[in-house]
Every structure is written in C-alpha cells, then in structure tokens.
Amino acid sequence: MAFQFNFSIEEDLENKLTSLDDGTCVLKSQKGKQDKKQSTEQLGTQDHLCSSLGNAAASEDTDSPPQTTDRSGDSEAQNKQPSLKPAKEHVLPKDCNQVLENKVLEMLPGPLHVNTAVVKTISLKEKFPGENIVSKSFSSHSDLIPGVYEGGLKIWECTFDLLTYFTKAKVKFAGQKVLDLGCGSGLLGITASKGGAREVHFQDYNSLVIDEVTLPNVVANVPLQGDSNDVNEPDGKRPRKSEIGQEICKCRLFSGEWVEFCKLVLSEKLFVKYDLILTSETIYNPDYYSTLHETLLRLLSRNGRVLLASKAHYFGVGGGVHLFQKFVEEKGVFEIRTLGVIDEGLKRFLMEMTFKHPVNMH
Ligand SMILES: C[S@@+](CC[C@H](N)C(=O)[O-])C[C@H]1O[C@@H](n2cnc3c(N)ncnc32)[C@H](O)[C@@H]1O
C-alpha cells in the first residue's frame, strides 16, 4: 500500500539514510545499532520512520507536556502513566488560506472513495527552531515517544483500512457528530465530513501535529464555515450550500491528553456527545487503556458506536487488539466485536464498540 508522507526529507538527511530490509530508513551511521534493536520501531514495519524524519532537526513542539516525572529516572514507572498534557482547542484562523502557505498538496493515491489532499510541509525549521518532537523521534529511532510524541506526524496503515471499510460497508456519516480520536493526519474525520457529518472534532496528543498536519489537511479538504468556520455566523455571511456543493460541516480541533481533552469538552455547557468515534492505531500502549476506555465511555452517546482499527500486536510497546478486547470485556461496559481482519503483512483488525445497554429509542 502506498503511503503519503507529510514531511519531505531534506537532501542532506536523505543522503545519510539507508534502507533496511523491511523498508525502514535509518541513518547510515546508526544501522549497526538498528540491527541489534528490538523496540518501538517495530510499531508496524510498513509505516515507518521515513515519514517522521523530514526536517528532523526542525521544529519544536511549542507546548510540550509538563514533565511531571524525570524521564531519565525509573522509566518503567514513568511509562505506566500517560503525562497529563493539558488540552486546548486550536481555533481556526480567520484566513484559512494562510494555513496552506508553504504547503505542497498531494492527492492521496489508491482506491479511496473520496479525493483527499494531504499536505507536505516544506519546512518547519524557520517556524519552530530548536529541539522538537520530530528530532526527538528521529534521534530515538522511534515512531513515537510515550508522553512526548504519540506518532501523529505520519499516516498509519490502519487509517487506510478504516477508509476502505467506510466504502465497503457504506458507513453513513450524514448528520452525525463525529470524533476522530488520535487523529494525526485527520483523514478519518475529513472523510466523515465529506460524507455529510454535521460536526467533526479532531483530537491529537501533540499540538504541533494539529497545527502543521491536521489543520492544513482539514483546510485543504473541507469546505469551512466562511473564513471563521463558525456556525453562529449570521446565515447571510455563510457560503450557501449550493455554492460549495455540500452541507457545511463544523470542524473543531483539539490537542492534549485524553483525560484532559474529556475535561475540556465536557466543561462546555451545551456539549453533545459523539454519535461516532473513529480511532486508528491508538491501542498500542496498554498503559493508556484505562484513559482511552474512560474517554470512550464519557464521550460516546448512548446509542453511538466506535470504529477502531489496530494492528494485532505492537511489538516493543506490547499493546494490540486481543489485549484491548480483553480489557474492554473485563470492564463490562461495551460490546466489542470484530468487523474485519486484514491478513496481509502485519495482521490488522477492524473493531466496533457499542454500549451494552443503549438507550431504548422507542
Ligand atoms: C500511532 S498515532 C495514529 C495516528 C492516526 N490515527 C493514524 O492512524 O495515522 C496514535 C495517535 O493517538 C494519539 N494518542 C495516543 N495516546 C494518547 C493519549 N494518551 N492521549 C491523547 N492522545 C493520544 C496521538 O495523538 C497519536 O496521534
């Protein structure tokens, strides 16, 4: 399957890269270490480091999580708890066109039922000088660093599995309120909005991911509410349905850790729960299962459903479908069932979760 990368690899960096047998790219000087290593870089052999390498010396996650623990100390204890990275909403800029400045758009290849453009970020270097999540990810040879960078800069394989499932199963988005949880590129939410969702929220752990990847992708693909994407704008100011060819979908973007994200949205007086929560490759770390489960429990509407895509197992981090399924079953709140198994390359699963006791609508 072809992958679309959001970051271009700078020439000098590219020259230092060498390919391993599994398609992974590593720095030539680091190949020896890589041969011995069996850790988080095994998080999916096909969607790998190359995507997060571009501009490796580049940006800074402008609001890195407050480090509640010293990561150089007892790493096992620290990894047990996701850092409580505060959540915030990323307000859409008045002039959305600005978001696409310095961005190169590419159409996603493959048999997707919607035309989706994704951005290649030319250079984050000037915008975010200094240390950053990209270079941290690069220097630790990892697609993610728990509590610091959770992998949203690239498009992970299971996102494409869910997109294919949407088409095959004719998933209905019309009129729904949708959450793309752990959105990264935001392709799931973007597809929902193209399918007529009334409102789509995007959440990613990292603020930089939202600003530099999700937001540009949303702006490039979703007709937004005038310049401000504000449904409260007087009708006369909004582009009419006929002008844009589809219903306007209200999009909101959030960064931060799941518990904090829940707190933020649930603090809104008029908050309405989600009809559909889409989530791809978010169950790799068993330490997060509790907060993820709690998030789904608190944010899903009683008759809503979660569509989740995951690899069978994430080497190095230890999570995977079976472990998560067991966790959910033990909690006893949701039904969890398998919708499909993709048995090429690394085995992957599509799962559905619904409340065991939905509200009787009649
Ligand atoms: C491996 S990436 C997958 C990105 C995207 N869904 C895809 O399939 O391409 C995992 C995503 O889950 C989110 N995530 C993981 N753990 C999280 C946590 N504890 N709190 C908030 N977000 C988290 C991160 O934002 C990250 O983007």
Automatic annotation (TrEMBL):
Chief place of localization: cytoplasm
Matching InterPro entries: Methyltransf_16, SAM-dependent_MTases_sf
Keywords recorded for this protein, A-Z: Cytoplasm, Methyltransferase, Nucleus, S-adenosyl-L-methionine, Transferase
Pfam families in alphabetical order: Methyltransf_16, PrmA
Listed EC numbers: 2.1.1.85
Skewed-composition ranges (Polar residues): 40-54, 64-82
The organism's place on the tree of life at top rank: Eukaryota
Family: Belongs to the methyltransferase superfamily. METTL18 family.
Protein name: protein-histidine N-methyltransferase
Source species: Apodemus speciosus (Large Japanese field mouse)
Taxonomic lineage of the native organism: Eukaryota, Metazoa, Chordata, Craniata, Vertebrata
